[in-house]
Amino acid sequence: MKKIRSLIIIYLLVLSGCTKNIIINEDPYLSDNKGKLPEGRYEINTHPYYGVGLIFDLSDEPEFKDVDVYIVHSEMELALLMAIHIEQLAYDFYYVEDRELDYEKIWPYLTALLVNEVEIEDGSYDVPETNPTATYYSYNFTYNLEKTHKVENAIDEWTYEYKSSYFSDHDKAEYSLMNMLEAVVYDDAALNDEARTDDGFTAIGVFQDGQAVCNGYSQAYMGLLKDMDIPAILISSDVDDHAWNMIYIDGEWSYVDSTWEDDTYETSDNWYYFLLDQEELEYDHRFDSGNGDTLNAKDYLEFAHYVFPKTSDAQ
Predict the structure, then answer these.
(1) Which domains does the chain have, with CATH numbers?
(2) pTM score, two decimals?
(3) Complete DSSP assignment for 235-283
(4) 198-222 pLDDT per residue, tens
(5) Degrees (nearest 5) of the Cα angle 21, 137, 215?
(6) Listed residue (146, 121, 113) closest to 47, CA to CA
């Protein structure tokens, strides 16, 4: 049985899971990688932003000789692999489970990374078809390429002047936020869309229409930071029905709420929701408990460390 999942709106949250996390130097032939490479087939991650230095296992079962099938060890790993394939506009992705996965946990991890809209269809296949000896799973991705290109082109235009080494990551994060807040207003009308399919709930609302709600603000800001190679994820809170970002600046993970900052930006010379620590953020923001299908602050930090290994020592 196949299901269609639309990831245009991001309000599902889940608990984190354990993952196999092998990190190597980007050049697999250097001596400091000895003893780190697995036996059998594997893929060295070449994505320049997500999971730099990670390797992923590939099945060497003869049943899968005609297709690359990943061996997935955790919910976080599956979400990261899917995000990488979606970033590359891949149309399909195949894997087998190393252990039984909790599929309610995949989607919040994945949506914490996605800037653009995508529809996902899943399925499972037995091989060979007669007297099957193995099962593998698939995801097929469908994109709105017109919107995706508009978002990516706008991001390139907005970040172009800040990509010089003259700017620190702090400067890039601050100036790009200023530009975004000057260009976007809160989309009150989108709140009447109970299905949450309005463009205001996504980055396209910011870059095409100049109006969005919290999820659109947060997706757009994450897209700007990503384009400038600044680690960032999107955080959603069911209990507050709100979204904001966690970003890595000056060796620390901090929080930015671009939506609420927009309320004070034009009337104040001070930042109120830019680079807050957790204690400061929790003065008027609430993380979910981490029970059931939600993530708490610790879960998000664990996922951020996995997706961006260079930040693994940061709090």
Answers:
(1) 3-142 (no CATH), 145-311 (3.10.620)
(2) 0.87
(3) EEETTTTEEEEEEEETTEEEEE-HHHHHHHTTT-SS-SSEEE-HHHHTT
(4) 899 999 999 999 999 999 999 999 9
(5) 70
(6) 113
